[in-house]
Design brief:
Chain A: Belongs to the ETF beta-subunit/FixA family. The complex is a heterodimer of chains A (264) and B (436). With 264 residues, chain A is α/β, with parallel strands linked by helices. Helices cover 26% and strands 26% of the residues of chain A. In chain A, α2 packs across α5 and α3 crosses α4. Chain B has three domains: 112 residues, Orthogonal Bundle (Butyryl-Coa Dehydrogenase, subunit A, domain 1), CATH 1.10.540; 107 residues, Butyryl-CoA Dehydrogenase, subunit A, domain 2 (Beta Barrel); 150 residues, Butyryl-CoA Dehydrogenase, subunit A, domain 3 (Up-down Bundle), CATH 1.20.140.10. In chain B, the strands form three sheets. Chain B has a four-stranded mixed β-sheet with strand order 1-4-5-8. In chain B, strands 2-3-7-6 form a four-stranded antiparallel β-sheet, with helices on one face. Classes of the chains: A alpha/beta (264), B alpha+beta (436).
Chain lengths: 264, 436
């Protein structure tokens, strides 16, 4: 039997993308209490891609089958919500890494170290993760993880294709003015971007099935990691309100306006 | 609660003060309605030791499905709402997606391809869909709470195996009770059934049949023994392609226009014995019981509609429309109306969820369901009407959803028991309780 994919999909519970974020009273961050949360949209893409890789494998449209999809999330007591969603979409099992909510999200390096621990313990050969979380927008975890593991990485994937049984993977991503195709061999780290796929809605029967899938609670210590902080948030403020612009009649008007402002 | 009342009752007959007390606080007793409901009590568990929770609290599964259905409705149904209403047709792609999402078999057990969820989950789904489109919502409501329930509860193992997989994965169902001359007086139905050598033959016509254009399976109530009066009423299952069955007319309606409503003809429709649902002569009981709980579904459709109309208008007055230099939602006259409307929606929802939970707990819920449906449809009418006014011209044009929600709300006072019938049900139960 050829090698099979053992996929890790880290997901994050964030403020729903449709909610307008508001700064908290202490100006230390975004108000999260009483605000609707859901799975980070980029992570939905990675869960979907993992499930599609499995479907393609089963339909023999892909040379490698998927053996297991592990969803993982670090956070407080509400974190299992997004893990259940991931399992309702098709992940097989989940790890909830318990991190006290009061501490806020761990920093990307901490997360990357934790993920390295999971990869090693669970014998993972493909990590699919969102290119960034829409709350912190740091976009570092995938790259740091690849660095720590010494694995090849392909970021902002818009297409993922397993080319052969030996684990050659071709990843397409969008760059300025076109697309770039990368080829690497498993094990590897892939981060996902918007055009990769359209995530499914968890169907009602699958929501029920997800209840029976295993969800294990773990701690950072289980993977030999401490929640150390290197960064300190000094202040969070609203962007200044937009001031109305002006309209110009035609190109000449635009040119003279630009000259007037000293831009030309 | 129920056990407490039962325990107190014998006491009240002997001790005058206790009797007085129980009469002074009638709201705390559970009205008995066995005469109206033969719904099997699923749980005999005593609920009195449980810590009461907020009535709006959903289980993990229910809230997860609420999120999913909300997202699905907004993204997939939302863009089609206006077109479907104008065309007065349900987009077949929407029906297909509803099956794919498992929304057509919410309570059907997993072994038959359903989701195997609870009744309140279906209520949550109906409400979430109605926030976007009450037409889609009623389709899901009738299919789940009337058709699926009828077959799950009254069909035998063979009927389960035959019909449930179809109903959960690809065939829409209709519930055919009303006729040209029998609406609120449902048991005056004229459709006749005759026994044949190996089955039954149906003759007559049905009217106001929801989902008829999309349906493949029809539960038809017909009288097998007219001399026995309503006790001859029997439920049958008729498939769309049965010879003699035809759709005579599709109604053009004021509201829920994407939902089909048709007149059906049965002209010597011959069906096999196995298409008898439950037992002969029990149809009237089945119909009463199913409609009693189906009402909670319509109530949920109405609270969902009210919420959808309210949210649509609230977003507009608090974000878009400015007059006299400020958002119109800043004016106190507007704010008080908006607050009043939301309070009414919250009250209606409390009735709806309370009725649903009581049904699930195996308590009598007939009066609760009637009150929920009555009030929710009234609130839906008022709120969606106000929402049109708050939005001014933008509420009146056939562009957004405001005027559509207003038109759609009207049906709530009409189908699955008119408001007058609900009032009658509530009054009858109260009178029984207060008659010495």
């Amino acid at each position: 039997m050829s090698k099979a994919l053992r996929i890790l999909v880290p997901v994050k519970r964030v403020i729903d993308y449709a909610i307008k974020p508001r700064i908290n009273k202490a100006s230390t961050g975004v108000e999260t209490t009483g605000v609707k949360h859901s799975m980070n949209p980029f992570d939905e893409l990675s869960v979907e891609e993992a499930v599609r890789l499995r479907q393609r494998g089963e339909e023999s449209k892909s040379p490698m089958k998927v053996e297991n999809i592990l969803a993982l999330s670090a956070g407080g007591p509400k974190t299992p919500d997004v893990l259940r969603t991931a399992m309702a979409m098709g992940a097989d099992r989940a790890f909830h890494i318990d991190v006290p909510e009061a501490d806020g999200s761990p920093e990307p390096l901490t997360v990357a170290k934790m993920l390295r621990g999971v990869v090693e313990k669970e014998n993972i050969n493909l990590v699919l993760l969102g290119k960034q979380a829409i709350d912190g927008d740091q976009g570092q975890t995938g790259q740091m993880l690849a660095g720590l593991l010494g694995w090849p990485q392909a970021t902002q994937a818009s297409k993922v294709e397993i080319k052969d049984e030996a684990g050659t993977v071709e990843v397409t991503h969008e760059v300025d003015g076109g697309v770039e195709t990368l080829r690497a061999k498993l094990p590897m780290v892939i981060t996902t971007d918007l055009r990769l796929n359209e995530p499914r809605y968890a169907s009602l029967p699958n929501i029920m099935k997800a209840k029976k899938k295993p969800l294990e609670k773990k701690t950072l210590a289980d993977f030999g990691v401490e929640d150390t902080r290197r960064l300190k948030t000094v202040k969070v403020t609203e962007p200044p309100p937009r001031k109305g612009g002006g309209k110009v009649e035609d190109v000449d008007g635009l040119v003279s306006k630009l000259k007037e402002l000293g831009a030309l | 609660m129920a056990s407490l009342v039962r325990a107190l009752r014998p006491l009240s007959r002997t001790v005058p003060s206790a009797r007085l007390a129980s009469r002074r606080f009638p709201g705390r007793t559970v009205p008995s309605a066995y005469a109206f409901s033969t719904t099997p009590r699923r749980r005999e568990a005593d609920l009195s030791d449980l810590t009461p929770t907020p009535i709006s609290l959903l289980s993990e599964t229910e809230s997860m499905m609420a999120d999913t259905v909300q997202k699905f409705a907004q993204e997939q149904i939302g863009p089609k709402v206006r077109d479907m209403d104008e065309a007065e047709t349900m987009d077949p792609a929407v029906v297909e997606q509803l099956f794919e999402q498992g929304l057509m078999g919410v309570e059907i057990p997993e072994e038959y391809g359903g989701a195997g969820m609870n009744f309140t989950a279906a209520i949550v789904a109906i409400e979430e869909l109605a926030r976007i489109d009450p037409s889609v919502s009623v389709m899901v409501d009738v299919h789940n709470t009337l058709v699926n329930t009828a077959i799950m509860r009254y069909g035998d193992a063979q009927a389960h195996r035959t019909w449930l997989p179809k109903l959960s994965t690809g065939t829409v169902g209709s519930f055919c009770l009303s006729e040209p001359a029998s609406g609120s007086d449902a048991f005056a139905l004229q459709t006749k059934a005759e026994k044949t050598a190996d089955g039954y033959k149906l003759n007559g016509s049905k009217m106001w049949i929801t989902n008829a254009m999309e349906s493949g399976i029809f539960i038809v109530f017909a009288n097998l023994n007219p001399s026995a009066g309503y006790k001859g009423i029997t439920a049958f299952i008729v498939e769309k392609d049965t010879p003699g069955f035809s759709i005579a007319k599709k109604e053009k309606k004021l509201g829920i226009r994407a939902s089909s409503t048709c007149v059906l003809n049965f002209d010597d429709v011959v069906i096999p014995k196995s298409n008898l649902l439950g037992e002969e002569g029990q149809g009237y009981k089945y119909a009463i019981n199913i409609l009693n709980e189906g009402r909670i579904g319509i109530a949920a459709q109405m609270t969902g509609l009210a919420l959808g109309a309210w949210e649509n208008a609230a977003r507009y007055v608090w974000n878009d429309r400015k007059q006299f230099g400020q958002l119109i939602g800043e004016f106190q006259g507007m704010q008080h109306q908006i607050a009043q409307a939301y309070t009414e929606i919250a009250a209606a929802r409390a009735l709806v969820y309370n009725a649903a939970r009581k049904k699930e707990a195996g308590q009598d819920f007939v009066q609760d369901a009637a009150m929920a449906k009555l009030y929710a449809s009234q609130v839906a009418g008022r709120v969606s009407g106000s929402a049109v006014e708050w939005m001014g011209g933008m509420g009146f044009v056939r562009e957004g959803t405001a005027e559509k929600m207003f038109r759609d709300s009207k049906i709530g006072a009409i189908y699955e028991g008119t408001s007058n019938i609900q009032l009658q049900t509530i009054a009858k139960l109260l009178q029984k309780q207060y008659t010495n």
